[in-house]
Prior knowledge:
With about 130 residues, the chain is mostly helical. The chain contains four helices and no strands. This is DUF8042 domain-containing protein.
Amino acid sequence: MTELNEEQHYMLTQYKELLSGMREGLSYIQANLTEEAPPQVSQVFQDLLVAFEQINKVHSQMLIIFNDHPKVVELVEQYKSVVEDLTLWFKVDSNQAKQQLLTDKVLPAFDEWKNNTDQFLKPYITH
């Protein structure tokens, strides 16, 4: 098992918290995305896009820390699939279609990836 230094441990702990926050944001959007959605929905979505960028940066570090461990590579690929699903957001016009996209594709894929990531990280960040 890879030994983490303090900075790496902190980064992965923050990463795990970010994933939980992202899940909350996706749930908020799913629940509030109506034809007359409040402006907060747009802001939460923008915040999620920033969070997805942060996740990309952490993944680069994780590949280094874990020396391209096959499970990390698999998680990064699974994440890319989540992002691909999310890009469909920009191809649908109605809020109803976006909500359906979240319900049918993005949330199930995100949840599966997050659960797999949590399982991988658990032995490294729990003391």
